[in-house]
Design brief:
With 447 residues, the protein is mainly alpha-helical. The protein folds into 3 domains: 79 residues, Arc Repressor Mutant, subunit A (Orthogonal Bundle); 72 residues, no CATH class; 243 residues, no CATH class. The chain is 63% helix and 4% strand. The chain has a 3-stranded antiparallel sheet. Helix 8 runs antiparallel to helix 9. The radius of gyration is 27 Å and the shape is elongated.
């Protein structure tokens, strides 16, 4: 803990971890990349999150960035803890006694006019990234002075909606902050709109990168599913499918997976960038919305293409299937990353694998449910098209006979649907949670 004269000084956990890291490595300047890898090991955040953390620690310690006593900024590199008189002692379990180094004085009752300059600063429109940082620092200082009094004084002055949104967002990084409600406040819809705009603007580049990763992961999963399915179909006794079916199904699977991954991944990335509370519900809705929109577009295009090119009119799904699969992906992803806070989830090693497996299981069960309710996924749709087209050899009936069914029956349909959904969820999750390389991270966080 951080304590002064036997009293704990509040600091949110990640910021405390950053302070400990800088103290431990005080004989060197710690690179930003090393800080992200150590402190934000399970999430991806923008460079502004690190700047904000250092600013908060400095304010807590009573430090000044222009004449630093504790934390110095090393240009184009990172930060270094420069206080020379650090003493290390073995922990004996006793409550810490008085601390020799001078920290900031505890917050007392604010002067009557201390609020107004800060309120004016957060209420005015930002003119650049530097102004954004000043406004956020002012919001954090207002929380330290007193959140309820700041909201009362803010009232409905010009720019109050943007200021209230900033206060609500900054409370997550201010341990002394009080509640900033939306309901019951002036202009709640305008405040909510400003809050969504604020959060997404800060994370837009990272969200775009994750959306692309999800699309790539879904596409690779689709290629694998289509290729393996084609090999099994071509090798099944009694099947008339030629070996050429393998690349055809791989291309179809890859295209469907990439498009589905793009839609669901975009929904999940956008929601994760803006949602701080009710995260599970938000991710389910975001995944369902993204999957549904893409599903409707694919459904319309597939029906129109079949009717116009080969004269087939087949009930092809898309919209409802996209909603269910996308919602299931959001649910699985939310459950798998429920303990991760303060950024976009990017666990490593076994935790990443476990999160991908949970997401895959949720998508697989969703695919099974859809098929059993009469709404097939890609494999079932290909079988229906092949069954309706004269002379087609892409029917999946041999797969049903392989497991003892007379045709492509409910059991084989369920197995194929579960496998499709699970592989899609696996690829989607791995692509979504992929951490960028150091070079890519630097590009994402550059201002």
């Amino acid at each position: 803990m951080l304590a002064r004269e036997g009293r704990e000084v509040p600091l949110i956990p990640r910021y405390f971890d950053l302070l400990v890291l800088l103290v431990e490595r005080r004989h060197e300047a710690v690179h930003r990349r090393d800080i992200f890898d150590r402190v934000w090991t399970d999430v991806i955040v923008s460079d502004s999150a690190l700047s904000q953390a250092v600013r908060t620690i400095r304010r807590t310690l009573g430090d000044d960035s222009r004449e630093p006593r504790f934390i110095r900024t090393v240009s184009r590199h990172g930060y270094r803890f420069v206080f020379p008189d650090v003493v290390e002692e073995e922990e004996d379990g006793a409550w810490p006694g008085p601390v020799a180094i001078p920290l900031a004085e505890p917050e007392g009752e604010a002067p009557a006019d201390a609020y107004e300059p800060l309120l004016d600063r957060i209420a005015r429109a930002p003119s650049g990234s530097g102004d954004d940082e000043e406004r956020r620092e002012a919001a954090e200082l207002l929380h330290a002075l007193g959140t309820s009094e700041a909201l009362r004084r803010l009232g409905t002055r010009p720019g109050h909606a943007s200021a209230r949104a900033l206060l609500r967002d900054a409370r997550w990084d201010s341990p002394q902050a009080g509640p900033v409600p939306l309901l019951g406040a002036p202009a709640p819809m305008a405040v909510a709109r400003e809050l969504l705009r604020l959060r997404y603007r800060r994370a837009a580049r990272i969200a775009a990168s994750r959306w692309a990763g999800a699309s790539t992961g879904g596409g690779l999963a689709g290629i694998a599913a289509g290729g393996v399915g084609g090999l099994i179909l071509a090798a099944t006794p009694g099947s008339a499918a030629p070996i050429a079916i393998v690349p055809v199904l791989a291309v179809i699977g890859g295209g469907c997976g990439a498009i589905g991954g793009a839609g669901v991944g975009a929904g999940l990335s956008a929601v994760e960038a803006i949602a701080r509370s009710q995260r599970t519900v938000a991710l389910i809705c975001g995944g369902a919305l993204g999957g549904g929109l893409v599903g409707v577009a694919v459904q319309w295009l597939a029906r129109w293409s079949l009717a116009a090119l080969v004269g087939l009119t087949i009930g092809i799904g898309g919209g409802p299937e996209g909603v269910v699969i996308g919602g299931a992906a959001g649910l699985g992803y939310a459950i798998a990353t429920r303990r991760i806070k303060g950024g976009m989830a990017a666990p490593r090693g076994r935790r990443r694998l476990l999160a991908a497996i949970i997401t895959a299981a949720a998508c697989g069960l969703a695919g099974l449910t859809l098929t059993l309710s009469g709404r097939p996924l890609v494999g079932g749709t290909i079988h229906a098209i092949a069954y309706a087209a004269d002379g087609s050899r892409a029917t999946l009936a041999p797969l049903g006979r392989l497991i003892g069914e007379p045709d492509f029956g409910p059991v084989s349909q369920g197995i194929i649907a579960f496998g499709e959904g699970a592989l899609f969820g696996l690829g989607l999750a791995f692509g979504l949670m992929r951490r960028p390389s150091p070079t890519s991270q630097a590009m994402l966080t550059a201002r």
